[in-house]
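Dear colleagues,

As part of the handover before I leave the project, I'm documenting each prediction I ran so the next person doesn't have to rerun anything. This entry is a single chain, and its sequence is reproduced below.
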Amino acid sequence: METVSSQAAIIRREGQGERRWFFGGGVHVWKARVEETGGAFLLFEDQMTGGKMTPLHSHPDSDETMYILDGEILMHMDGAEHRIGAGGLAMAPRGVPHAFMVLSGSARMLCLHTPGCCEAFYWDASTPLSGDDPAQTGLVDFGKVQESARKNGGIVLLGPPPFASH
């Protein structure tokens, strides 16, 4: 008799999932972890305040898809800038340099990495969030983000945020 192995179903409602303060700014609500998807993908919701910027970076081993739920971001993708509002999508293929900045007062997006090889980076560059501690949500520590990027291969930091003119 042949044994078939499959992943367990994942059911999470709005607001459910582990909440982590990301040192680059924002609260991640982890919707599907790599261990839950057999490595196929990582999915988290990113809740961010206005002005948040990411450094210019790439993901050599995964595609990153960002679906904007609320707010507006400015996406710098492979040298060009694009405004993306609620209902919009940006997909950065593996290796393509990109960064974004939150233009609205706040923004929420779903972030999907396929495959989920970047989870270690986000885990190392974040800490569990207890409640809605506003003191945690205002701190940005790019030093810890850079340290995490050096420790694992999920992300390559290419330079500072490319949004000086905005």
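The first strand starts at residue 18 and ends at 22. The mean pLDDT is 87.

All the best with the project,
I.
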